[in-house]
Amino acid sequence: MSHPNWNxxxxxVGSALIAPNQQGCSSHYLLSIAQFIVRCRAxxxxxxxxxxxxVAAGSHMFADQEKSNIAVKKAMAAAGQTExxxxxxxxxxxxxxxxxxxHADLRDRERYVSIRETIFSLLYNNxxxxxxxxxxxxxxxxxxxxxxxxxxxxxxAADADALIICSDIDxxxxxxxxxxxxxxxxxxxxxxxxxxxAMAGGxxxxxxGTGGMRTKIEAAEKAVSxxxxxxxxxxxxxxxxxMLLAGENPGTHFRPFKKxxxxxxxxxxxxxxxxxxxIIEGNFDGTLITDSDQLTSSEIIGVNGEFSVGDTILVxxxxxxxxxxxxxxxxxCLLNFxxxxxxxxxxxxxxEKTGPxxxxxxxxxxxxx
Length: 369
Hints:
Elements: E1 8-13, H1 15-18, H2 30-42, E2 46-51, H3 54-58, H4 70-90, E3 96-101, H5 103-107, H6 109-124, E4 128-133, H7 147-157, E5 162-167, E6 188-189, H8 194-197, H9 213-224, E7 229-234, H10 238-245, E8 252-254, H11 263-270, E9 276-280, E10 300-304, E11 312-317, E12 322-328, H12 332-339, H13 344-354, E13 358-365
Parallel strand pairs: 1-2, 1-5, 2-4, 3-4, 5-7, 6-8, 9-11
Antiparallel strand pairs: 7-8, 9-10, 11-12, 12-13
Helix pairs in contact: 2-10, 7-9
GO biological process, one term: L-proline biosynthetic process
Binding site for ATP: 12, 167-168, 210-216
């Protein structure tokens, strides 16, 4: 038996493992996970822990409050976060560090690079990063929404070799195993397509967490495109972690791309949010991914949304075909002004002085979606 050849691994632990009864944190299921982390580190594998559970951990402190109230949920997260971190810290004899993130942090390129540098610095100093979404300040605009997708973004930022997503079942089944006795588990997935998504439902009704199998597949799709081996395993059983350490697959293994996306392209496609749209003529045949300066205002027939210089935009054709997500070198106001000029000469002269509309340093191809 030999342990897997990982340099760095991200493990995602959900609320149901942290606070299964919503009566504060419990170490019942966390002991085997903590031991797995300890053994990984002993084998020379760096670990980043993405841990949900702050709201579930803090809910028992607000017994008489309306728990669907957003302000109360944020308070529950604030109170539960300290208990959750303290619970994890008690299980280790090495230091850990708390990192609370929002999607706004991840989708801003400068802050994203800062997150990467912080993770690398913590790992270099043998400190375990414990990451969670900052539920106390998130809004609909700022939140990732589930820690499955957050874990994939963190795995990409950390340049991880493997992402392990803990679930309440053994892996991905071709149908719901709670409802169908003949459901079969997929041991390996080479390509994530609509047939794979069709096997997943939404969030579990009455569950503690915010995700379901679909969000886990979404996370796997993000991770494998960055070249990261991804596993969905049963986090409630110690056997899962023993098998991983023995180099065996205890759940569903999503195989990574043979040619992973470059870091900039992956961030643009899977992490950055488009703030607006640029719609171009349907007969445009430029290759935006390799020669973005082919896109000029003469091809633009519409601009949707408001965005500033440096924001991410979606470039699509009028029939809805998505071409690229890219960093805009122009604001929506300026693009609208230039595109509405009757003379193309003005636009060409302006673009010659100021450069291309989208940055060829920050662009992700979407034509194969």
